[in-house]
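Late entry, written up from scratch paper. The run itself happened at the end of the previous shift, but nothing got recorded in the book at the time, so transcribing now.
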Amino acid sequence: MNIILDLKKGSCIKRSAKKKYETVLNDYFSKTVSKDKKALMEKEIEALKFFLENADFSGIRSAYKELSGVKNIRVALLFDKEDYKIVLNDKIIKSYWKQPLLKINRKEND
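Output as recorded:
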């Protein structure tokens, strides 16, 4: 799954992801949305929730100043199972996890 975030000046990646999550969630409950579209939206909501709950946003913003809201940019979030990647300037950057999730993932992957 690929989700595009538009970061506006003064709006970091976390705030932009929250805004996208809220927008998709509100649209999901619209009576005019088809069942097929709702199924796609459910996956998008789930992916954004996972990202918001598990990404280390201070680490992301420290490593990539562009994601801290210093200027208007567009980034993509790529989701694959229980992982995410951020595409910034056509390059995939490192995923930053909150520590508890990182420890769990390492044990499962060993």
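The radius of gyration is 15 Å.
(Scratch paper discarded after transcription.)
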